[in-house]
Automatic annotation (TrEMBL):
Protein species of origin: Streptococcus ferus
Descriptive protein name: HAD superfamily hydrolase
Keyword hit for Hydrolase: yes
Recorded superkingdom: Bacteria
Molecular function as annotated in GO: phosphatidylglycerophosphatase activity
SUPFAM superfamilies: HAD-like
Gene3D superfamilies reported in the protein's UniProt record: HAD superfamily/HAD-like
Pfam families: Hydrolase_like
Keywords: Hydrolase
Amino acid sequence: MSIEDYRPDFIVEAVYDLTPDSLRKHGIKAVLVDLDNTLIAWNNPDGTPQLREWIDSMTEADMPVVVVSNNKYSRVKRAVEKFHIDFVSRAMKPFTRGIHMAIDRYGFSKDEVVMVGDQLMTDIRAAKRAGIRSILVKPLITSDAWNTKFNRARERRVWKKLEDKYGKMIYKKEI
């Protein structure tokens, strides 16, 4: 395993900064997105008005959004059903199971899909393994669920190695 396995293709402040136009400029036609701390704060399962606006803008632009989450079915369903977007639960990131399920379900082409998430160790690594592009976003809130805290410690070491090799990683407002 090399440090490249954790290097995101793009780094943006928030999933809400992604627009259909900016995605299309990069040949992206579908967005796979992590749930906790990417789409919604892990401790606020109801989301925000900003989330509703972003999903509406993607839907109006015919840009499919599919949540790919390691969470259990009931948790993901409760979080996304009011937004009428599809999801894959128990995705098993950093493995590729959930990403492949979403790609296969919709017949997406790997070069037209991007995985968006807040963790190098799960979201970005899974995207690299699946052979698709990735976008790292800042976590929506600075606290994590108990099961994510372990990954964050490892992630800080990986982040430092990435910056040592490629220079400072800066969150931007668009891809």
